[in-house]
Amino acid sequence: MTSSTVTSKCLCGQISVSVPQAALNRTECVGLCYCKNCRQSSGGLASYNLYLPEKDVTIQGQPKIYEDKNTDSGTKIQRAFCGNCGSPIYGKNPGFVGLMAVRLGMFDELPKPGMALYCKRRPDWVKSVDGMQENEIMPTMTEDFKVWLRTIGVSI
Ligand SMILES: [Zn+2]
Ligand SMILES: [Zn+2]
In this protein, which residues make up the domain named CENP-V/GFA (predicted)? Predict the structure, then answer.
């Protein structure tokens, strides 16, 4: 990899994740998901994700994988977390091969999200972020969505 990478660790330090700095600088790669399962697994209001090609992510250590079958969208999501401290590490949707959602909470740099998923489940008292593209649920595989995947570097 020629570009510089940023590395962070889970709370206990057993798992580290490296991503390209360039991805962190791109608002369109950063998103929030307010679905109930992201909320439950994160313990927060939403999952906070960096969407990028799996090949651009380097993980050291062995996260545990929870196969989440009971999702709002009906797709099975692999939720990776540290088996020691419980920190969320990433999510993968087998419907979008090659796409990874790295959980951004572990990083020092907290970039502004460019989009949000499942806004219908967002509490009324949470303000939306300026300029953020909002989806009521999970976008379907429309042409727009394919364009977005290509923009972030995932070929489908
Ligand atoms: Zn840990
Ligand atoms: Zn979600």
Answer: 6-130
